[in-house]
Design goal:
By secondary structure, the protein is α+β, with helices and mostly antiparallel strands. About 60% of the residues lie in helices and about 15% in strands. It contains four helices and six strands. Strands 3-4-6-5 form a four-stranded antiparallel β-sheet, with helices on one face. It has a two-stranded antiparallel ribbon with strand order 1-2. It is elongated, with a radius of gyration of 23 Å. It starts with a helix and ends with a helix.
């Protein structure tokens, strides 16, 4: 095939991999009942006037499956961190013992599990839409090349290759969703 077609196919695959990477990152934010530092990834604190991720102002550790502890690098940050966690509205009630902040991760209710599974499905659907949009853009680029004189056979093969990539990435998204749903629904 021509260099232009090869470039289109490479950028198509890169973009589709980007959709998968984004989905995996979003899935990290959907908690499955087991404590993880990633659960606090969306929490930012006011650190001397600038919005700073929680992980940059404290040491976050997970001593067991139901507990997260935060050890601030500066003692005066305890109340600020506690307030930021409450304000983030992620369903945690932090306890401050004067040295560290302890968060007990409550077990998920059946209703909450269903909500999280629905949220995971929505994220997966967004990723599929992203992959399909990449396919559409790539096919449009291939059609432009065909108008510019590249043979119809080469363009048809390229379109088939784009469709094969699309199918494989959609399948991967479905597999990731099935894994996440199993993780969420496991009691």
């Amino acid at each position: 095939m021509t260099e232009e077609i090869d470039f289109i196919l490479e950028s198509t695959e890169e973009s589709m991999q980007g959709s998968i990477a984004h989905l995996e990152k979003e899935f990290l934010n959907i908690r499955a009942g087991k404590a993880s530092p990633a659960m606090l990834g969306s929490v930012f604190v006011d650190y001397y006037g600038s919005s700073t991720p929680l992980s940059q102002v404290s040491k976050i550790s997970v001593p067991d499956a139901r507990t997260i502890t935060l050890q601030p690098f500066e003692k005066n940050m305890l109340q600020v961190i506690e307030k930021a966690i409450l304000t983030a509205n992620i369903g945690f009630n932090p306890m401050n013992n004067g040295d560290v902040i302890i968060i007990s991760v409550p077990p998920l209710t059946e209703e909450r599990r269903r909500e999280l599974a629905k949220q995971a499905k929505a994220e997966a659907e967004d990723a599929k839409i992203g992959v399909r949009n990449v396919r559409k853009d790539s096919n449009n680029e291939i059609k432009k090349l065909e108008k510019d004189g590249i043979s119809e056979d080469i363009c048809k093969r390229a379109e088939d290759e784009v469709q094969n990539l699309t199918n494989s990435y959609i399948k991967k998204i479905d597999e990731l969703l099935a894994e996440k749903e199993a993780e969420i629904m496991k009691v």
